[in-house]
Amino acid sequence: MDINIGIAEEDRKATADALSRVLADSYLLYLKTHNYHWNVTGELFHSLHEQFEEQYTELADAIDEIAERIRALGYRAPGTFKEFNELTSIEEESEEPEALEMVRRLAIGNEQVLRTARQALEPAKEAEDEATVDLLTQRLHVHSKTAWMLRSHLE
Questions:
Q1: pTM value?
Q2: Which of 13, 92, 113, 141 is such that its CA lies 20 to 30 A from the CA of 102?
Q3: Element (H, E) at 69
Q4: Domain tally for the chain?
Q5: Does residue 74 form part of some domain?
Q6: What percentage of the chain reaches a pLDDT higher than 70?
Q7: Angstrom distance (rounded) from CA 22 to CA 136
Q8: CATH code, domain with 77
């Protein structure tokens, strides 16, 4: 069935592609945050364990919303590690950093998602796709606040 939601196909494609990058960055940040939740140690364990859980839980919901918006635009949402690795600007890690280094890396990751979401705003605005603009604006708010809270641990 043809999609007729008032947004031209080329605009839907550009927006879905940009959202796919936001999805990939969000998913990799989710994985990193969940990993740190499991593996944080030290005197900050309890507070960081809880803070990381709040963050990865929020990211899990956001990932679903982003993927559903891509689908609503008429495109397949990426959903494999291979696809995410090709689309993401978040670096995967294999070492186990100390607690405050985890915090620093998560602050950087949230700032990266902010930059990716800002880039995705352009095609959504050009397409006058208010639903995507609203979704991205919410993501900007959440990641700005999260990055600030994480940076506050490092001051």
A1: 0.96
A2: 141
A3: helix 45-72
A4: 1
A5: yes
A6: 100
A7: 9
A8: 1.20.1260.10
